[in-house]
Amino acid sequence: MVMVTYPDAHILDVVGPLEVLTGAKFFLPRGPEPYEITVVAAEPGPVSTTSGIAVTAQASFDEASRAETPIDTLIISGGHGTMAAIEDPALLDFVRQAATRARRIVSICTGAMILAEIGLLNGRRATTHWWWCPILETRYPSVLVERDAIFVQDGNIWTSAGVTAGMDLALALVESDFGHDIALQVARYNVMYMMRPGGQSQFSAHLVADRAEDPAINATLRHILSDPGAALTVTALAARACLSERTFARRFREETGMTPAAYVEAARLQAARVALETTGTGIEQIARKTGFQSGERMRRAFQRHMGISATEYRDRFRGSTGDAPIRASPA
């Protein structure tokens, strides 16, 4: 297994997935390490990250290229240094060459930009950090960007959303390699949810609210989040913002990249997910409280965005006892 890094990568994009992957050894029969990992960079030795903490590369791109041995998994880290990395011919040449001998290829966060730069994502489904999804779409129009996915598998290429989503992807790799039971134990050990491909939305209505600059739109976003079960029609929201419906809808989309109706549904879905994870309240009652009006409407929203029903979501992400979601301690 090869992890590619570079200056100003995000340290969690490097160590997060590796901690999950290497954690599998605690739950497998004694024997060879499940994953032999080599960190590679332009030169062996310390590589700075955005946190100021350095990671150590065991080999240079040139040394790793000369090895010519098969690679089980090629992982490309992400971070603030990505845009500089895609201008580095040595890095791009190494990834291009290594990909030809890798069983599977993985990007963490903005590492997807590197895969896209060398054409590996052309015509493929992929994702990246939510902030970078529009950039990935614009810069590489042949990539089929899935903005709401925590991670995406398309053939032998896996891409993940930002930062901790790389750990979710790594957990899915463990499950693919060693089965559900081992992956579940690794998840519990790392105090993680047991994630599934395409099962969770990375999209957060709160994240959108945090980036709105127009005071009227920002106030509207906060109003929606504070009471998603209210009557939140465009007419009512525009009147609250003291704008015409047309101006309100235009400004809203400029600020958020979404229509008002899409944002309202995202906020309601988020509120419903929290209720399903943390309470024993009935589906119909949650649907009414969060503005879906009926359990059937909420079910359709969950199917559209999450790929599973509200009931399946509760079964998957709520603890088997008590009202709190699973937060297992290492055992």
UniProtKB/TrEMBL annotation:
Keyword Transcription regulation: yes
PROSITE patterns: HTH_ARAC_FAMILY_2
Residues covered by the HTH araC/xylS-type domain: 218-316
SMART domains: HTH_ARAC (SM00342)
InterPro entries to which the protein is assigned, alphabetical: Class_I_gatase-like, DJ-1/PfpI, Homeodomain-like_sf, HTH_AraC, INH-QAR
One annotated GO molecular function: sequence-specific DNA binding
Top-level taxon of origin: Bacteria
Protein name per UniProt: HTH-type transcriptional regulator CdhR
Keyword Transcription regulation listed: yes
Name of the gene encoding the protein in the UniProt record: cdhR_2
Alphabetical UniProt keywords: Transcription, Transcription regulation
